[in-house]
């Protein structure tokens, strides 16, 4: 591992990607997309974390299709998006750091050797290198958008596996909500209109305490928000991503309009 200024090893070398990627960093439309689980990349210093190639690319490592969908949507809507560039198995950016699943050891039949008996120093190294920089850039983008217009609509994008622990899930999409029922109801209704089987706080609940990103940035900052989960087989190829992006474009455009966030960005 390369060494940092205090002679402690740094997790990411200067040649590796930054912990986050920002698309349209200067967009003025008051919507911010975030994708916590966009990547299956591991830092080189962590090798394969003891996982075989299947496990490295499965739904435990990455929300399959969610990054491509977020990217497509941010381009078509012309809005800012922040995407994590390292796997959730390195550190899960959508968890409180004290939650055991922030550094997942076992899930859906897969053991993650690289997270077994992880020391406090290793946890801190990963959170300092990836988790906090990712959340800081989200905070910075929220602050930038607040400075140029109304507080943005905060949209968190995830995908879920069709089968978990041997149980099939029939939902095609899920809208997770807790504090912002109005936006959630608009999104649920419009997605159902579009013909999708949509779970209302299913297959996961937005009221669950372990989610971090929406609670911290949107609920903590009093932003209007929605969190959406797409079943991964709907977005695991370009055609699927295009189709779902087109629908979500309409839905989030409409949601922004209904809550009075359309056309309000100040022009420079
Ligand atoms: Zn996710």
| CATH class (first level) name | Alpha Beta
Strand arrangement within the widest β-sheet reads 1-3-2-6-11-9-10
State the low-pLDDT regions, or none.
Answer: 264-268
- Report the span from N to C terminus: 44 Å
The CATH topology label is Aminopeptidase
Give the H and E element order: EEHHEEEHEEEEHEHEH
Overall shape: it is globular
Instruction: Please identify the structural class as seen in this structure.
Output: alpha/beta
Share in helix: 25-40%
CATH architecture: 3-Layer(aba) Sandwich
Classify the beta-strand content into a percent band: 15-25%
Please tell me the overall pLDDT: 92
Rg of Cα set: 18 Å
Number of helices: 6
Beta strands, count: 11
Please outline the major beta sheet. Answer: 7 strands, mixed
Query: What ligand species are in this complex?
Result: zinc ion
CATH superfamily: Zn-dependent exopeptidases
Q: How many domains comprise the coordinates?
A: 1
Could you describe the 3D structure shown?
Mean pLDDT is 92; it is low at 264-268. The termini are far apart. This protein has 268 residues and is α/β, with parallel strands linked by helices. 32% of the residues lie in helices and 16% in strands. The chain contains six helices and eleven strands. Strand 9, helix 4 and strand 10 form a beta-alpha-beta unit. The chain has a single domain (20-258), classed as Zn-dependent exopeptidases (Aminopeptidase), CATH 3.40.630.40. The structure holds zinc ion. Zinc ion binds at residues 36-37, 63, 158.
């Amino acid at each position: 591992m390369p060494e940092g200024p205090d002679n402690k090893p740094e997790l990411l070398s200067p040649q590796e990607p930054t912990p986050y990627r920002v698309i349209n960093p200067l967009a003025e439309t008051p919507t911010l997309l975030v994708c916590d689980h966009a990547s299956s990349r591991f830092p080189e210093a962590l090798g394969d974390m003891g996982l075989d190639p299947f496990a490295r690319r499965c739904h435990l490592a990455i929300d399959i299709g969610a990054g491509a969908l977020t990217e497509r949507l941010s381009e078509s809507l012309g809005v800012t998006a922040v995407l994590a560039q390292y796997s959730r198995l390195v550190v899960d950016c959508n968890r409180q750091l004290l939650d055991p699943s922030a550094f997942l050891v076992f899930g859906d039949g897969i053991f993650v050797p690289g997270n077994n008996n992880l020391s406090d120093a290793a946890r801190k190294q990963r959170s300092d290198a990836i988790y906090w920089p990712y959340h800081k850039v989200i905070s910075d983008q929220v602050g930038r958008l607040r400075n140029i217009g109304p507080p943005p609509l905060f949209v968190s994008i995830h995908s879920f596996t069709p089968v978990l622990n041997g149980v099939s899930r029939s939902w095609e999409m899920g809208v997770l909500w807790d504090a912002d029922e109005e936006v959630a109801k608009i999104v649920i209704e419009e997605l159902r209109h579009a013909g999708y089987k949509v779970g209302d706080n299913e297959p996961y609940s937005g009221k669950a305490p372990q989610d971090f990103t929406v609670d911290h940035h949107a609920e903590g900052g009093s932003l209007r928000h929605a969190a959406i989960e797409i079943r991964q087989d709907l977005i695991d190829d370009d055609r699927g991503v295009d189709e779902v992006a087109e629908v979500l474009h309409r839905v989030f455009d409409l949601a922004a309009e209904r809550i009075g966030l359309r056309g309000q960005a100040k022009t420079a």
